[in-house]
Amino acid sequence: MVIIFAGIFLFLLFALQRGLYKRWWNRGISVKLEFEEEMVQEGEEVKLFEIVENRKRLPLPSFKVKFQCSRYLEFPAGGNGSVTDKYYRNDLFSIMPYQRITRTHQICCRKRGYYGIYSIDLVGADLFFSEEMVENIAADTVLYVLPRALSAANILPSLKQISGEITARRYELEDPFTHRGIREYEPYDEVKAINWKATAKTGELKVNMKDHTAVSSVRIFMNLDDRGVLRQEELLEMGIRICAHLAEEMLHQGIRISIFANAGDCVSGRHLEMEEIADASGMDGVLKSLARLDVESPMEKFEDCFGEKLFLKGESLFTVFISPDQHEDFQEMIIRYKMEAGDDFIWICPVKKAGDEKVHNCLTDRTVFPTIS
How confident is the model at residue 215 (pLDDT cuts 50, 70, 90)? Predict the structure, then answer.
């Protein structure tokens, strides 16, 4: 008889706890994933905090937190994760009532990109582990992995030369709204430059001397269309790093910049267009936009994206092309631009090694070939 009552009691206890857990296991439970920083550079490490809190009297002897993220975010080896097309994490907790647990994961960011964790699976069990209960919650955890800083000795001298040329040219543009004096008329002067009041006073033709503008504008056009038989992702990534380097250099010198790229944004899908960035405070926005460029998906042909904008007459003083693409049609477009703009441009063409250069003779004096090796 005692055994029967004990059996009934255990059955009722089992049924009661099972009913309680089925109804209440996920009440008062919160799970958050937070990166220590919003932005890190490619190759750096960042901490991911996994915060689990149980705000009720019911303990959770077995509670699993499952999420997935990019395989380019490298977790420490030997953890509760597996890597296939993505990284899949499965962490087990045992949480007492009103307890908060924080776990810290040290992650190495292997590749430039924009990485997000948008959902978390919660799996709970009752006291007897007789059944698993599952809930999916939304997450909004994102990390910008910015382009790695340039350090190669064979790249930086070329970029310093380009920066110096742009800086020198910024003072060659005359400002039509300011004057720094009056001089005698020369045969090459335009009629509209004549100062008629001074001419009347002196009896000789006098012209206004324009001051030089204090601010110039640089356009950076990136062609990231990979049309080769073999993927050249390392060259595209080098081009993005060069763009980041030049943008920072120009903004710190007070030069306005605009950046265009035919690669799509991995969130919006639109190609990159950032116009008239005026000072260094806009550099974070530039780096975030470069981090979100998707060079793996198909993209529009460069001239289809920016042909009209490129040949549009405007106030831009200098144009920088960044592209490892040496196909004939792209070079013909640059040659047409040279015929219109003269020497007010430079083409930065990353190559794997010296000897890979295959450009028209008329472009060699305006082309720089930074190499990976």
Answer: very low
**H, E, C per residue of 95-161:** ECCCEEEEEEEEEEECCCEEEEEEEEEEEEECCCCCCEEEEEEEEEEEEEEECCCCCCCCCHHHHHH
- Counting the structural domains of the chain, the total is 3
**Same-domain status, 207 and 292:** no
Q: Which residues of 208-228 are buried (b: 16+ CB within 10 A; e: fewer)?
A: bebeebeebbbbbbbbbbbee
Domain that holds residue 131: 28-146
Give me 100's structure tokens: 């908060």
Q: How confident is the model at residue 314 (pLDDT cuts 50, 70, 90)?
A: low
In what side-by-side order are the strands of the sheet with 87-95?
Answer: 39-41, 132-146, 113-125, 60-69, 87-95, 81-83
Q: Say if residue 20's pLDDT is above 80.
A: yes
Sequence length of the chain is 373
The CATH number linked to 105 is 2.60.40.10
Q: In this structure, what token pair is assigned to residue 357?
A: 């250069």
pLDDT over 80 (residue 171): no
Query: How many whole angstroms from its chain centre is CA 7?
Result: 64
Cα distance from N-terminal residue to C-terminal residue, the chain: 85
Q: What is the pLDDT of residues 266-278, one digit of tens each?
A: 999 999 999 989 8
The continuous run of DSSP H or E covering 261 comes out as strand 256-265
